[in-house]
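Form P-L/3: holo structure prediction, ligand fe (ii) ion.
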Amino acid sequence: MVVSHLLAMLSSFFPEGEDFFVRSVREYRDQVSDPALKKQVAGFIGQEAVHGREHRRFNERLARHGYPTRFVDRSTKRGPSHLARRAPLRHQLAVTAALEHYTATFAEVLLCDERARLSASGLPS
Ligand SMILES: [Fe+2]
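OUTPUT (holo model):
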């Protein structure tokens, strides 16, 4: 039960993060010449736009159930906008790569580890 609440609130952090990821990759898009990599960059940007939209929809639904997702979303804006103003573009891209690896690892554990899935579902294991 606690894990499902934590995951629900984790979603509140995502829209701003997804937007940051898109901006950081877009800055380098014109420097990519390899056609396969260019296609991956376009796919990544599209994927992150969809993720952001779906997290916003999910967060609005959570807010209607009393989760403070709007507060978290507003508070989260500070981190990416601070980085976007102060950090070099390559640092922003590195942050994007690191966070994408982190969330991919997190997702893999949730999808592949039955104990993690049961824990997130709130069902007794
Ligand atoms: Fe994403």
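COMMENT: DSSP finds six helices and no strands in the chain.
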